[in-house]
Amino acid sequence: MTWVLSFDQQGRAAAMLARFDAGLAQLADAVPAHRPTAATYAANGYTPGANSLSGDIIRAAGFSHLAAELGLTHGGFLPLEALILAAPDLVVVGETYSGNSRAEEILSHPALTQLRGGRETLEDRDWVCGLPSVVDAVTRMRVARDSIGVAP
Amino acid sequence: MSFRFLILSLTALVALLFAASLVTGVAPVGPGESLVALISDDGGPLTMVMREIRLPRAILAVMIGVSLGLSGAAMQGFLRNPLAEPGLIGVSSSAALGAVLALQSGFAMAFTLALPFAALLGAVIGVAMILFLAGPGGGAFTLILAGIALSALTAALTSLLLNLSPNPFAANEIVFWMMGSLADRSFDHVWMALPIMAFGWLALARTGRGLEALTLGEDAAASMGFDLSRLRLVLLGGVAASVGAATAVAGAIGFVGLVVPHVLRPLVGGSSSRLLLASALGGAALLLAADVAVRLVLPGRDLKLGVVMALVGAPISLHLIWRMRGQS
């Protein structure tokens, strides 16, 4: 019984992988020359580094990664002041949990919400694991990138 | 030293430390450049940092310092005990419990001033318990013991609430509620705290003459026509409002109300009403200095204000206890 099921799933997996590769290839073809800066910002001012899945997603979507520019290759805590001064073109924040925490209050700080760049909310499940849905996350980020417009 | 000179020097000190607080931060920007960006809006990110992050932080330091300095001076005058201080006797942690209860239950979102109001209610219960247990005639050690018990109880309940929260970050914030911090506060917090704090300042400012009379003893004050139960009520409201609003936005910050009146008392010639004004300014100066210090020691790491205040304040309270030991 078990091996029959797994046999079926292998076929589906291969199809899924093919779709995933095709999606990535399509996105890779159209990487724009100009890369706006994007930053990911989470509770307590944590930012995942460039050497992470989210870092790869941001690069694949045609952004330059702020954490990489600031030397935080493996992630770390970025003070709000430093984030604002770096003036990224897009800030990606996660969804907040229910119940109050001061750690997450930083994500609704007026300085962050008034930042001139765009703001995108991605749920953790969209990009915390290397799933086929990662292509959707890259596509959403690409749309966000195109809406920023190409600065000279 | 004349009183006028003392007040002018303290005001100048507050102004100087306010400027120092504005130019302290992780951003590698010169002081002149930062102050220019604060005053003239160039539309750049530096103006945003100055106006939305550093300015509210410095303003909150002044407001909270005034609240804690005033409360300490007033409580010490009323209880005639130099150890009566909102942090040490559990009033701040009662206020923190009220604030955490409001935040975790969602009551804080009910109306604009709900959060500081809930902290005020917590502080009212704390001050009332302290005045009931260790009011006039209670003695110095009753006060301290009551404070220890109240602090332990409220801190335990605060920790329990934060651990029960569905938010995974909440439990880590026990440190914030116990030690206090001004990191990443905004003008939302200034506007939220100011009305209730200002009410507390006005109430405490009105206790000056009553406290002055009380230095002669309760009977003398009563025979001079001062209504002690009314004075107690005004004091309770004033301390609860100012400490409550301060704790709601910055957590419990101890020792400010202990250190400041202790240092300034000899300089005002022992006058309780003059000590109130001097302690308000002194509290603002001390909190500004502590908030600059936490940013210089560990830039960008949010070292808690309570750490610096305890390092300064605990030796002074030990000294006070030693002195009281000699008296009894």
SSE-based structural type of chain A: alpha/beta
Number of helices, where a helix is a run of at least 4 consecutive DSSP H or I residues of chain A:
8
Mind describing the biggest β-sheet of chain A? Answer: 4 strands, parallel
How many structural domains are formed by the residues of chain B?
1
Tell me the number of helical segments of chain B per DSSP (H or I, 4 or more residues long): 14
- From the alpha carbons, calculate the radius of gyration of chain B and give it in angstroms: 19 Å
Q: Tell me the series of helices and strands of chain A, N- to C-terminal.
A: HEEHEHEHEHHEHH
Number of strands of chain B: 0
Q: Major β-sheet of chain B, in short?
A: none
CATH homologous superfamily title of chain B = ABC transporter involved in vitamin B12 uptake, BtuC
Query: How do the strands line up in the largest sheet of chain A?
Result: 3-1-5-6
The percentage helix of chain B is: over 70%
CATH topology assignment of chain B: ABC transporter involved in vitamin B12 uptake, BtuC
Overall domain count of chain A: 1
Rg of chain A: 17 Å
Average pLDDT over all residues of chain A: 80
CATH architecture of chain B: Orthogonal Bundle
General shape of chain B? globular
Structure commentary:
The complex is a heterodimer of chains A (152) and B (328). Chain A is 49% helix and 12% strand. With 152 residues, chain A is of the alpha/beta class. Chain A has one domain (31-148): 3-Layer(aba) Sandwich (Rossmann fold), CATH 3.40.50.1980. Chain B is 74% helix and 0% strand. In chain B, helix 3 crosses helix 13 (272-297) and helix 4 (91-105) packs parallel to helix 6. Chain B is globular and about 65 Å long. Chain B starts with a helix and ends with a helix. At the A-B interface, helix 4 and helix 5 of A face helix 3 of B. Chain B: It is found in: Cell membrane. Chain B: The chain crosses the membrane at residues 55-75, 87-107, 113-134, 141-162, 186-204, 233-256, 276-298, 305-322. Chain B: Keywords: Cell membrane, Membrane, Transmembrane, Transmembrane helix, Transport.
